[in-house]
Each structure stands twice: as C-alpha cells, then as structure tokens.
Amino acid sequence: MKSRLLKLSVLLVPSLWLGLTMNAMAGGPPVAMLTQVQGDVQVSKDGKEWKKVDRNKFLFAGYQIKTGADGSGKLVNQTTNLTQEIAAGSVVEITEADAKAVSGSLSEAKQDSGNLSSGLSQRFEKAQRYTTVRRSVEKKSTDVKLDTISEVTLANAYPDLVWSGMGAEYAYKLVIDGNSHDVPATDAAVVRFKVPALTPGEHNYQVLVVKGGESVYAPKREGKIKWLSAEEEAQVAAGLAQIDKTSPNDSFSKAIFLEDKGIAVTAMDLYQKYFESNADDTDLYPMLIKAYHDLRLDKLKKEGALKLQDMLKAAGQG
To answer: Which residue segments constitute the domains of the chain, with CATH numbers given?
Structure first.
C-alpha cells in the first residue's frame, strides 16, 4: 500500500508543480497602458511600495497610480482602446476590466485616434503558454535538427536573421532564393547573420547545418523572408518616431510595434533591452519568452521560463 502511494505521489508531483506555476502566472493580461506621463507619477502593485514612472507602462488588475501636484498621465484600456486622463493629485486603481479613481480625478473614457496602443489580451495569454517548463537534466540528442522562424520581415535597417546555435562543431549555409551564404561555426547560443539587401517582397530561405564541409541537416520546408520597400521602411520609422514623441526611450512599446510588423528579431532585441533596465517587471516577462518562441530559440526560451519562475519565487508568487 505504501509503495503504491509513493508511486502515485511521484506521478502527481510534476503535475502539481506545473499547476502551481500556471496559477502563479494566471494573473491575466494587462488591463491598461499608462502613457503620456508628465511630472510626478508613481505606480504600485499593492498600494504599499511605489515606484516613479517616466515612460509608458502596462498595468494589471490591482495596480495603483498616484500623481503628484505636477503629475498627469493617460490610461489606454487594452480591451476597448478608450482613453482616460488622470489629473494631478489623484490615486487611481486598476480593476479587472477598467480603472476607478480612489481620490482626485479620472476623466470619462473616450476615443483617441492618436493613441498607439492596441489590445494585448490574446497576445499576452498566448505568451503565458510558454512560461511553464520543468527543471530537468539536459538530454543531448544525437539527431541534428534546426528549426527556424517560418516567416520574418527584414529590411535595410533590420537585416539580422537569427537561429539557434547547434554547437562549435557546426557551421551553416543560409540559402536565399538559391543563393548561398556561408556562416561560420560558433559556440554561441544564437547565430546572427546580416542578410545582404534583397529586392522588396517575399523570398524563400532555408538554413542548412554543416559539419566537416558536408551538410548534415536540411529542412523539409523553406521559410519566407519579407524584405521591406523604402516606403514601407519609412512607415515603420515614422511609427517608431511617434512612440519616441509620446514616450522617449520606451523600448517595450517599440518592441510590440515591431512585432506587429513581423520584424521579430529587432523586437526581441528591444524586449531584452527593456528587461535589462526593468528586471523586476515580471508581469511582462512572458512577452520576451514569446519572442524567443516565435524565433524558435528554444534554449533561450527555456532559460527565460526558468528565470521567470525564479523571479516569481523571489517575489513570493511561485
């Protein structure tokens, strides 16, 4: 009987562990984005510890915003896309679906055609799927297989293509529309290659794995590179400039914008930049893990998920 109970408990531990992790991450997507911040504006997750904000910030249910005598800002609801203005000397609480003034003044919700934010609910919920991994001993497979992003957008300003490094003994051959580019071996976790300028439009590509001068892996299907025209690239630059105008140095909002355009590599770079300066922003960290997933960077994805679990435990949420 004891033996059966022991076996049952062993079987249940991974499931229980996974369930606890998912519960810790089940806080839901951001309810609103705080933007156009001016003066003294602070944000708290619990109404006790406050941090000054000087950039766009996504807010979750339970968060509070406090403005000083010279402080103001604008809330953009991530479901309705309606905006509300926070006056100076106010305290505002984010609810499950909206915002309410605890003190001071919060304007009525209205349409605002100049706002750059779009709803993030589906994207954020999708990102949470990639945050749960099991800590286990790494089993090195003898099979050589390389997965790359199926569709990616590149341009003169965003020429980098990335894929997972297979190890120092492997080199690569990037083939675009039948034209080959040799990529040297590296022990880096991520291989990065600047693609020479292509004509605007779609191009087929694949990455072959090479060892000892011989191809040891070739994908069954080709991926797609969309190369932006000068006009399309100018439109992207204008969008980034608008973000800089309303929220200077907001790498997170820029990453979301570029992700929407399919410029996945630069989006990942900007997510990484954001979390280098905002390491405690665990609520948004799943977006970086999703960026790794989309780019098929499985090692970074797993490392990111384990790092998030450690951060949640340190914050008492795991």
So the answer is: 32-119 (no CATH), 151-225 (2.60.40), 230-314 (1.25.40)
